[in-house]
Amino acid sequence: MHKQKLLKFQNRALVLNSIRQHGPISRVDVARRTGLSVGALTALTRELVENGLIYEKQEGDSRGGRPPILLALQPEGAYVVGAKLTEDHITFALTNLDADVIGRLTLENPSVEPEEVAQRMADGIHRLVADSQIQRSRLLGVGIGMAGIVEADTGVCVASPILGWENVPFADLVEQRTILPVYLDNDVNTLTLVEKLYGAGVGSNHFLTITVGRGIGLGIVVNGQLYRGMGGAGEFGHTVIDPQGYVCDCGKRGCLETFVGDPWLLRRAAEQALHYNTIEELSTAAQNGQQQMVELIQKAGASLGYGIAILVNILNPQLLIFSGEGMRYGEMLLQPMREALYANSMSALSSGLKLHTEPLGDDAWARGAASLVLQELFRTSQRELDTVTSM
Ligand SMILES: [Zn+2]
After folding, report:
1. Per-residue model confidence as pLDDT tens digits over 28-45
2. Nearest to 190 by CA among 34, 80, 68
3. Ligand 1 centroid vs 221 CA: distance in angstroms?
4. For a disulfide at 301, which of 25, 26, 130, 333, Cβ 3.0-4.6 Å?
């Protein structure tokens, strides 16, 4: 891209983000926050107003003179689709620029063959947009979250044991069928992004999102950025805490997940001759005071806290966000988790730590996926610049 043009798109994202975070805000304040000249800003904001992404409000502190014109984000100026892909269904959400969900759809996934899943994805997006009666031209793109190791830059699913995929260029497959920019990422990363942009992680530069459910997920934000390592960072559930323990799905023994994950809780209950068909049944038994199940959940909580203590010592985060279906156990899980966390981490590192529990609603995963596209709009990086250019 021509350097002049690149600079313009970079500035545009900067301005848009400033208005999103601080709006309604005057042009003078945007100029102060972004370091742009008022002249440059006037041209940029005119374009954003014309595109319907922001609007002008005439109010605020008048101090006797003409009230200043404030700029605010137009949440309905554009839309994105988020989709959470699992082995048996796809959950879609259509959101506005504030990540408010304005349309939902769930489709069954009878097969996990990548081309078929991509086609189902395209059909779902089409239906969602049609049902919501928005203009398709206002759709910025599609974000997809899935379990597994994902190369976010290329949109390739490197490995997803749940779907049995290896090196599937899934973003491309969906892009070909929708003619929209498609972003693919690990589902826990998408959940972490939505917390960073719109949730408990706003204003926090170092935080961890920990999900508990079928497995254990970890999203890492360091220095304000999602940390991906070589692509697979966050496999916290496969931290070995008992080398003599059960053989895990990953092939190692005694992973954290074998103490906390849903299938493992069911298996450990069965070993005590307590057979539950679903994790919900097991959970209900525990809530009703079934002593062995209470102890099982408490032990899961303590194991989790032990693992998190290691993370706290290494990463020294300011905030931990807990999410996922496992939050259904509430304090039964969380209290022993906190005890083990504080007992096993350095108090200088954990004393200022904030803990936040997020009840996982149906929309959370799909909203997270939608935030993949929103972050592209609001941040300044090469990939987003390409996206904005093609709009
Ligand atoms: Zn494992």
Report:
1. 899 988 888 888 888 889
2. 80
3. 23
4. 333
State in Å: Cα 158 to ligand 1 middle.
Answer: 18
What pairs with residue 103 in β-bridges? 94
CA of 253 to the centre of ligand 1 (A): 7
Q: Is the pLDDT of residue 363 over 70?
A: yes
Instruction: Please state, in angstroms and rounded to a whole number, the distance separating the CA atoms of residues 271 and 314.
Output: 35
- Compute, in angstroms, the gap from residue 244 CA to the centroid of ligand 1: 13
For residues 298-313, give the mean pLDDT. Answer: 97
Cα separation, 357 vs 369, in Å, equals 20
* CA 333 – CA 318 distance, rounded (Å): 21
Q: Which residue has the higher pLDDT, 10 or 117?
A: 117
CB 287 within 8 A of CB 195: no
Whole-angstrom Cα distance, residue 296 to residue 163? Answer: 29
Q: What are phi and psi of 108, to 5 degrees?
A: -70, 155
End-to-end CA distance of the chain: 15
Q: Dihedral angle at the C-alpha atoms of 105, 330, 342, 219, nearest 10 degrees?
A: -10
Q: Tell whether the torsion through CA atoms of 286, 289, 295 and 301 is positive or negative.
A: positive
- Domains of the chain, each with CATH number or no CATH: 3-73 (1.10.10.10), 78-193+364-380 (3.30.420.40), 202-357 (3.30.420.40)
